[in-house]
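Before drawing any conclusions, I needed to go through one protein's amino acid sequence and its backbone structure tokens, quoted below without any editing.
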Amino acid sequence: MTRHLVTGATGFIGGALVLELLAATGDDVVCLVRAPDAETAGARLRAGLEAAAEAYGRPAAAAVRERCVAVPGDVGAVDAVDLAATGRCRTVWHAAASLRYLQRDAKEILATNVDGTRQVLDLAARVGAETFHHVSTAYVAGRRTGLVREEPVAGDTPVHNLYERSKIEAEALVLADDRMRTRVLRPSIVIGHGETYATFSSTGLYGAFVQFEVFRERVRERLGAYLTHYRAQIAADPASELNAIPVDIVARNAVRIGLSDSPARIFHLTNSRGPTVEDGAVAAFTALGMNAPELVPSKATFSALDRALDRGIDFFASYMKSSRTFDRTNAEAVCGEGAFAYPLDRALLERFGNWFLEHVERTPSRARRTA
């Protein structure tokens, strides 16, 4: 029986990955969990996975209790991991990551995403892993536009932020390691479950929702219901693709690739039927009860309100102005061409947004801190 080791199992993508491994195989899954002891690690892991399984509509409580092993540990200190508790793990899935992107958080970002990946590679060698799967991001493409192939990224690729840079450096470490077979999995913008719309994320598309909500609340404080008829302007290309893909599709195809004998090393886990930027912006504003925004080519006609909104969505704006297409040749060779097709329109995006707004606890003050 294959024994898998997963980092980031209490996170959004990592949790979905564990549930998919339990469903697709009869294997045991060892989960590295940040906790002071095994009992606390086990309780935290079970709570997270059982909540995800319930939200995603898949019964998994028994499998979680019977086949998941929680081992206390941190990707930044793998020397302290108890190898007797992990046992031999033939496959390692590295999903843990820092999603921060600001320069002020550089120490944490690099420690987790770059040095943490280096340490998990060492841990993989120590537990006898034959294959190492690294969950990266399709946005290691940085500022490149047009067709983005499933190929290594040059270290000097221009990027939008430190998160992208850290993922480029981490990929380089993974692809250079010759102690085991290594693969890089690159999802795009990961959203909730494709059938239930449930999410445990407040980043990516949901991070934009938080910023739009902060904007709405600040305007309400000063101008009441002004946004129900005011049409805010956003500098963006309305026709550009907003490549969002449900977390269950990412997990399902990641495991298919992991269980395959494909000789390829880099795989794009991206949506072949993604929405446009305009669809995403309109869906978000509609879900928040605001008038649909106007997407314009420049900031020349911005009002004071538009400039305030623009400052809040500075991080997201960089992904709303450029068009890129992600090649999936390697991924589709394993999973099939239709495996990445999830047609997303405005109405469906609004359902994802409504689930987030209804189920993820937020207050204006908390939203501002998150933003």
Residues 364-371 have pLDDT under 50 and may be disordered. Residues 106-126 form the longest helix (21 residues). The radius of gyration is 21 Å.
